[in-house]
Structures are given as structure tokens and as C-alpha cells.
Design brief:
Elements lengths: L1 H5 L1 H15 L2 H8 L2 H15 L3 H5 L5 H14 L3 H5 L7 H11 L7 H9 L3 H31 L5 H25 L1 H9 L1 H22 L1 H4 L4 H32 L10 H12 L3 H11 L6 H38 L1
Helix pairs in contact: 2-13, 2-18, 3-13, 4-11, 4-13, 6-10, 6-16, 8-15, 8-18, 9-10, 9-16, 9-18, 10-11, 10-16, 11-12, 11-17, 13-18, 15-16, 15-18, 17-18
């Protein structure tokens, strides 16, 4: 039970995919009832409910690090999509899906949670998370048009996509935040039950790949296992590439802005920036794919490798956060001794 509680999100995601593959009937019925729109709406309402205002204000001192993080998330890392699109792999949706995934903002909760676990600047991580997702709503349509639509010969209705993203992401996020601020009792309840709301979000998130995989099962079983393994490997390489790029950039910025005295050299800030800037969010990617209406291919095939990539980044970064935590505990023990 402890293992299931500590790993609820990856278990929920993999269970959703597994149920969709084993018995797609219920998932197809849920998809016809537009349950996917409800789950996406629910994800961002919960995100608004759990968003603390004081945490954002506490990150102001580290604004240069936050500015780098936002630039990396929204402007630098989307260039990785160009490299991904060069990979010859069938079905083409696997490649296109991962390319779209690289244009997304950071995860809504995983990076912040891992930053807290590692002892990093969680307020800075939260600020970058909120701002990148809000700004991402405006920037994502243009990133897809620039980096992906040209490569696959598809025109993206930028204005329509922007409007859809505002309605499905921004409105419920604001609604959740307004509900939190309008009731002190509700805010206290949410703060005392953050693990519960995190699990609720995980359930909402797992509904989406469940429905997508159920609807596309007939296509998925035709995909060669070797191709899917390659797609998973691509997702892992994408995350490792993002980690390497951001680590090198943070170290370079630290060197040119004062060395060990630089705000980039502070371990808490560096950890937050590295984790947040190197992760990509699945819910926004799914919302984008839904709004594209099949312009880039079958949505289930687009989403499936990104579910794997999402799980991979959480697992890899959990090991990284654990390593930092153990290193810090060892250092404190040595100082006491």
C-alpha cells in the first residue's frame, strides 16, 4: 500500500493504458460521452485549488533563475522537436507526438513535488510552473506552427487553438484559484489534504490515455513492438537531452554571473530550475492533440509514446532528487560528526 501511495501517478497512468488495451469497450463509451473534456477541466480546477499565492511571491528574489527557466521551457527546448522529426520511425504519429511533447510547458505537479523532495526552492519551482503553463497557452500554437506543422505539411489554426486552450486550461485554473481565495475553509482543507488532491489529479490524468488508447486499440495492436520500444527510447533520450542542456546552461550562467556567489550557483535554485525546465506536461499535450482534431494523425498514437515519456521523466527525476537528498543528508551527518 505504501508503494502504491508513493507511486500513485505512474501506476494510474500505466493502469489506464493497460485497461484501454485489454478491454476498450468502456473507454470508447467514455470517449463518446466527451469524458476527456471533463477530466481535462478537472485537472486544472484542482491545480487552481492547490495554488498558493504566497509561494509565488517568495520566488521573487530568484527571478533571474526563473527567467532562464521560462526561456528554456518555452523558447529553447522546443527546438528539440526539429531533431525528433528527423528520426525515421513508423508509425509517424509516434515521432510527431514526441515532437509536440517537446513544445509543451513543464509538468503541473511532478517537478514541484520532486523539488520539494530534494530540498530545492519549491516556491521558485511553483512560480516557473504556473507562469510557463499560463504563457504556454499563448506560445504553444506558434511553437507548433513553427517547429512541427512545416515539417509534416499541416496548417495549424493558431487562433482557434489558442481560444480552445484558454477555455479548457486557463478558465478552469482561474476558477480553482478563485474558489480557493473565496473560502478560507476550503483553502485550509485543500492544504491539509494535498496528497488527496494530487491523487485526484492523477485519476483525472489517467482517464485521458485510457480513452485515447481504447479508441485507438485496433491501430495500436498493429504497431510493431520494436517500433514502440524505439519510441520509448526516444522519450528517454529526449528527457536526458533536456537535463544535459539545462544543466550545462545553468553552470554556464553561474560562471559568467559571479561564480559561487551567483544566484544560479545556489543549490536550491539550480535544482528547481533543472527539474522544472527539463520536464514536459502530458495534460496540456493531450489538450492540444484533442484540439487539433486529427490534423497530425490518430490521437491515440500521438499520445501513447508521450505517456511513456511522461512516466520516464518522473522516474528518472525521482532518482535524481533522491540522490540529491541522500547527498545532503550525508553532508549534514558529516558536519555533525
Amino acid at each position: 500500500m505504501n508503494f502504491a501511495s508513493n507511486n500513485f501517478l505512474p501506476l494510474a497512468l500505466t493502469s489506464g493504458v493497460a485497461f484501454g488495451l485489454v478491454n476498450p469497450t468502456l473507454g470508447c463509451l467514455a470517449d463518446k460521452c466527451n469524458l476527456s473534456k471533463f477530466s481535462t477541466f478537472g485537472i486544472f480546477v484542482v491545480s487552481g485549488l492547490t495554488l498558493r499565492s504566497d509561494a509565488i511571491g517568495a520566488a521573487v528574489k530568484a527571478w533571474p533563475v526563473g527567467l532562464f527557466g521560462l526561456s528554456s521551457i518555452l523558447f529553447f527546448t522546443p527546438y528539440f522537436s526539429r531533431i525528433i522529426l528527423l528520426i525515421p520511425l513508423q508509425p509517424q504519429e509516434f515521432v510527431t507526438g514526441l515532437a509536440i511533447f517537446s513544445c509543451m510547458p513543464t509538468t503541473l505537479s511532478s517537478a514541484v513535488a520532486l523539488t520539494q523532495l530534494a530540498g530545492g526552492n519549491s516556491a521558485l519551482a511553483l512560480a516557473m510552473t504556473v507562469l510557463s503553463n499560463l504563457l504556454g497557452i499563448l506560445i504553444i500554437p506558434f511553437s507548433i506552427s513553427k517547429f512541427i506543422a512545416v515539417g509534416v505539411g499541416v496548417y495549424v489554426p493558431t487562433a482557434q487553438l489558442l481560444k480552445s486552450l484558454v477555455l479548457t486550461l486557463l478558465v478552469p485554473l482561474i476558477l480553482g484559484k478563485v474558489l480557493r481565495e473565496s473560502s478560507r475553509g476550503l483553502a485550509n482543507f485543500v492544504d491539509h489534504n494535498r496528497r488527496l488532491f494530487s491523487k485526484i489529479n492523477a485519476v483525472f490524468l489517467s482517464l485521458v490515455p485510457w480513452m485515447q488508447v481504447s479508441r485507438s486499440r485496433s491501430l495500436l495492436i498493429m504497431v510493431k513492438p520494436a517500433a514502440f520500444i524505439v519510441a520509448i527510447g526516444m522519450g528517454m533520450l529526449l528527457h536526458l537531452g533536456l537535463l544535459a542542456f539545462n544543466a550545462l546552461a545553468i553552470r554556464s550562467l553561474s560562471a559568467v554571473s559571479g561564480g559561487h556567489k551567483s544566484i544560479f550557483s545556489k543549490k536550491e535554485n539550480a535544482q528547481a530550475a533543472l527539474l522544472v525546465a527539463s520536464q514536459k506536461t502530458l495534460p496540456v499535450m493531450v489538450a492540444v492533440v484533442q484540439q487539433l482534431g486529427g490534423a497530425f494523425g490518430e490521437s491515440g498514437l500521438l499520445v501513447l509514446p508521450c505517456v511513456a515519456a511522461h512516466l520516464i521523466q518522473i522516474v528518472l527525476d525521482s532518482f535524481l532528487a533522491n540522490f540529491w537528498l541522500r547527498k545532503e543528508l550525508s553532508s549534514n551527518t558529516a558536519k555533525v560528526a
